[in-house]
Amino acid sequence: MSEFDVVVIGAGPGGYVAAIRAAQLGLKTAIVDKQWLGGVCLNVGCIPSKALLRNAEIARLLREEGKTFGFSVDKLSLDYKAAFERSRQVAKRLTQGVSFLMRKNNIEVFMGTAHLKSNQEVAVSLQDGKDTSLKAKNIIIATGAQTAAPPALAIDGDKVLSYLEAILLDQLPKSAVIIGAGAIGVEFATIWNSYGVDVTIVEMMPQLVPLEDEEIGAELSKAFTKRGIKVLSGTKVEALEKTASSVRVNVSNTQGKQVIEAEKVLVAIGFKPNSHGLGLEALGVAISEKGFIEVDDYMATNVKGIWAIGDVTGKLMLAHVASTQGITCAESIAGVETQKINYEMIPRATYCHPQIASFGLTEKQAQERGYQVNVGRFPYQANGKALGLGENSGWAKIITDKKYGEILGAHIIGAECTELLPELTLAQKNELTITEIARNVHAHPTLSEILMEAAHAAEGHAIHI
Prior knowledge:
Layout: E1 2-9, H1 15-24, E2 29-33, H2 39-44, H3 46-64, H4 66-69, H5 80-104, E3 108-118, E4 121-126, E5 131-141, E6 145-147, E7 160-161, H6 163-167, E8 175-179, H7 183-194, E9 198-203, H8 214-226, E10 230-233, E11 236-242, E12 247-253, E13 256-262, E14 264-267, E15 271-273, H9 280-283, E16 306-308, H10 319-334, E17 348-350, E18 356-360, H11 363-368, E19 373-379, H12 384-389, E20 395-401, E21 407-413, H13 421-429, H14 434-439, H15 449-458
Parallel strand pairs: 1-2, 1-5, 2-3, 5-16, 7-14, 8-9, 8-14, 9-10
Antiparallel strand pairs: 3-4, 4-5, 6-15, 11-12, 12-13, 17-18, 18-21, 19-20, 20-21
């Protein structure tokens, strides 16, 4: 039996990062995954989807923006299969990079299915048909999550898709209904609409991207509608009816009932944790009613030597959260200084068009907590770089505490706004005030000036509006 200080189960952005950090700290480390290094994110999630979104951006420019930029294309032909193949190449390159990092850090890799025999032993059924056992002083569970869908929206992988089948399509349908307007839903709406697919997006909550600030949802709905995406918010899906060549989606809202027919349906309404079948229950590991592994601030479970990170903990299902948890966990195991994670101030990024970036409290949440708030706003249309790019829709909104100038949150919608957010999260983490953002000299012309201007606006003296 091979012996290790740390065995990580799951090689996604949480697992492989935890393994690397543990190895850096001098711990003998192994990692186990039943399918692929890099997990869902690198292989069939956030990375290939961003490659598709880049192709979609170019397709949109060619199809819709010729008049703006002074070009025309006769008999435009868009090959989605080429976009798909590029996305697979991007994913392959990064997963090969993870394999290199495992070798570089002397992390032993076992491809197979893991099962905990005790809090110090992991049995692995290897992909080659053999079995092995790993002895571990510490076991980190990083098994992620999978698509959740109610029986009425049963995914068949053919006409009714999850994100997995959608991202592996190499030919697009003529029409699609997307159920769920979270990050996955609005990103696929962006991709498919950019290639001319007739897209309807259905969201049960009153707004698109329902976890975001209300004004963000309204702005995105306006942008989607302008581009020809049909938006049905506050709408419930009652049933799906499959025909020989399509799916009929029965929906209802305050205006009544209707049936939408499309070639494909994408179900993007949520995830459930991959916590069962690992042997955790037999060891007494605390698991919530929804299946999430319960952990403390340092990623420890209630059973000595067993830790958990990433989506399987249900804290916040984002790749960068899993990676951050992985570092915290490895440092906790090694007994070195580490930091607790403030999940409320974690940045969130959605790569639809226009992009969405946010962190912290919404204006409504801040008011409900008793803060007297100042809100600084600045529109993209008043920013020189945005106008030069031809991307003048959107705005930034910064929420601050009126008394001390403390940054409570920010909500941005517009071109490349996901790249703007780190300035604000770094400031908040280090207790800088909105005054210091306003007085920080920003290069001109840049999109980052939008944040400086919004900061000035929060202080009551916006310069360019």
